[in-house]
Write a structure and sequence with these properties.
By secondary structure, the chain is an alpha/beta fold. It has helices spanning 13-44, 72-83, 125-139, 157-170, 192-202, 246-257, 277-288, 315-325, 365-378, 398-410, 433-446, 468-479, 498-508, 528-548, 573-579; strands spanning 51-59, 62-69, 90-97, 106-112, 115-122, 142-149, 172-179, 182-188, 210-217, 225-231, 234-241, 261-268, 293-299, 302-309, 331-339, 346-351, 355-362, 383-386, 389-390, 412-420, 423-430, 452-458, 514-521, 556-560, 581-588. Helix 6 (246-257) packs parallel to helix 7 (277-288) and helix 10 packs antiparallel against helix 11 (433-446).
């Protein structure tokens, strides 16, 4: 029988089906393990009080559990809960018991301005949470939890730790340390009541603990105090604040006002007095802004201020300014301030056609009023703009030199007088030639010893002559600048009238072909004959002064009228002052 060749073929279906089955098994197992792991993690989320650092891994239907169990019973409960997860075959426990510390079991509570720091050992999460909550309630601030778990705590540990937290919070810089149930306590009481509370609490400490090192300081003598000091470009602030965050704003305010280093020695306190700390420190910063160096001490409701003021600052003005910054019910007590000496010591007076302008420094605040009054007497028709400041360090004889120099300046049409230390200078234009030489001569001979004088006084250019009406108008305008002054009851011209006399001379020197009649007048005080004689002699004194200054009119006469031609009633002082006068009339020559 002949052999027949058969073709063989491979069927892939069985292999494909087998592969799909294997893949399905793999994915099913992974999905099953993932479901078990999710259920196990949900149980762990509620077991933080039983196991620290609990972790699970799933292999098939088995759960591997690791972590630190706080107690055997807590670990057993967790294992039991995990074993009831659907699909779990067995729970393999690798839990470790909570170990005791390497050394002594410790706990500490340290109070600071920012809150409280808890550190040391704690036996379980429940007590840990209770201690953190107690610290937050006691210190009203942030609580930093640096505690670690350890076995070996005594049954009275919880009460001892809570006691320590309460006492540390009552003290400024309070520190409670617990080691093997022996405790130490230190810090300063802000108020007498806090000190008494801590002392009383020590007598009622929990059983099972014993004191070791106790260093509780009573309140500072004199009660709460604040201090701000500014020395050599460095600002230092100390005292109590109600909250640690307040110091940030105060340091920023200090840096905004002052250049240089700001040293913060402020501390937070729960005392009632600390609540006004921010207001007091800010007030002290305002006060010290006026000082070069200084210190503000605040205690017992009183601000005490000492320091050095800048050049030109007045002590009285600085004191009044300080009083405005002191908050009620506090008050300003002692105020001791010295002034920095001005170098160089400079005073300046400028005269224009309308005013005197004063600048620079004068030795005393009251000197300013004296200067203004002096200039109003020398030139009543001019305003006085006073921009001077009181300053320490004026050289000897300064006031006398200043008065002499102002008298010379008043005789100029315009000019500038300067005193710098002991150098006096005068610049400007005199009203006529003889006045220029007289001003310089008088100052050279009258300035105090030690002063050096420098002057540049010019004379006006030749001016056009005035006709009679123009001359009369100019003379009357000059007379309106103020009355001519005489020594009381005498016919001697007062030196303070030289500025007015110089102006009259300058006008008369321009007059031509005119007759000048000078009339003297008095009020009704005294005998009529005496008044008539006095008025005549005063008129003649003016005439002689004009001649001495170069007014050489042939027809210039003087006559006294006594009280016979009053301008106002003699019943009042103002009226009598108007009646005591010198009249000058310019008329055409006959």
């Amino acid at each position: 029988m002949p052999l027949t060749k058969r073709t063989m073929s491979w069927n892939p279906a069985p292999a494909v089906l087998g592969g799909l089955w294997l893949l399905a098994c793999v994915f099913w197992v992974e999905s099953f393990e993932r479901t078990i792991a999710q259920d196990a993690q949900a149980i762990l989320a509620t077991a933080s009080d039983a196991v620290d650092g609990a972790a699970v891994t799933v292999a098939g239907r088995d759960i591997h559990l690791s972590g630190i169990q706080f107690t055997q019973s807590a670990g057993d409960r967790l294992i039991n809960d995990l074993s009831h997860v659907r699909g779990v075959a067995i729970v393999i426990s690798k839990l470790q018991p909570l170990a005791p510390p390497a050394g002594a079991l410790t706990f500490s509570a340290v109070s600071s301005g920012a809150g409280m720091i808890l550190s040391g050992h704690v036996p379980d999460p429940a007590i840990r949470a209770e201690l953190v909550q107690a610290a937050r309630a006691a210190c009203d601030g942030q609580v930093v939890d640096e505690m670690v778990y350890a076995a070996g705590a005594q049954p009275t540990f919880r009460a001892a730790a809570l006691y320590g937290i309460a006492q540390a919070a009552r003290l400024d810089g309070g520190r409670h340390m617990l080691m093997n149930m022996v405790y130490s306590l230190s810090g300063r009481a802000d108020e007498a009541s806090a000190y008494e509370d801590v002392v009383a609490a020590m007598k009622m400490a929990p059983t099972g603990i014993a004191p070791a090192n106790i260093a509780i300081e009573p309140p500072e003598p004199g009660g709460p105090a604040w201090n701000v000091k500014r020395v050599g470009g460095r600002l230092e602030m100390s005292g109590w604040l109600a909250a640690d965050g307040e110091r940030v704003g105060l340091v920023a305010a200090a840096r905004a006002k002052f250049t240089g280093q700001v040293e913060d020695r402020l501390r937070s306190s729960r005392s009632s007095a600390a609540r006004e700390g921010v207001q007091l420190i800010r007030a002290a910063l305002e006060v010290l802004e006026a000082f070069v160096d200084g210190e503000v001490d605040m205690r017992r409701g009183i601000f005490s201020v000492t320091g050095v003021l800048p050049a030109g600052a007045a002590v009285n003005e600085a004191r009044m300014a300080a009083e405005t910054h002191v908050p009620s019910p506090w008050r300003l007590g002692s105020f001791s301030a010295t002034e920095t000496e001005v170098r160089p010591y400079r005073f300046q007076a400028d005269k224009s056609a309308s005013a005197f302008r004063l600048s620079g420094f004068v030795p005393e605040s009251g000197q300013r009023e004296v200067l203004v009054a002096r200039l109003k007497r020398l030139a009543p028709h001019l305003d006085v703009l006073d921009e001077t400041r009181p300053g320490k360090g004026a050289p000897a004889g300064f006031n006398e030199a200043m008065g002499r120099l102002l008298a010379g300046l008043a005789r100029l049409s315009e000019g500038r007088a300067v005193i710098e230390d002991q150098v006096a200078s005068l610049r400007g234009e005199a009203q006529h030639a003889k006045a220029a030489s007289a001003v310089v001569r008088d100052l050279q001979s009258s300035l105090p010893d030690g002063f050096r004088f420098d002057a540049t006084v010019s004379t006006p250019d030749a001016l056009l002559p005035l006709n009679q009406p123009e001359c009369e108008s100019e003379v009357q305008a000059r007379l309106r600048h103020g009355p001519l002054l005489f020594s009381s009851g005498k016919a001697e011209l007062d030196g303070d009238s030289l500025s007015l006399l110089d102006g009259l001379v300058a006008a008369l020197l321009r007059c031509r072909d005119a007759e000048v009649r000078i009339g003297g007048h008095t009020d009704e005080s005294g005998a009529a004959d005496a008044n008539l004689e006095l008025s005549r002699r005063r008129a003649e004194a003016v005439l002689e002064h004009f001649r001495s200054q170069g007014v050489l009119m042939a027809q210039m006469s003087a006559e006294g009228f006594g009280a016979t031609r009053p301008l106002a009633s003699n019943e009042t002082e103002a009226g009598r002052a108007l009646n005591r006068r010198i009249d000058i009339h310019v008329s055409p020559r006959p």
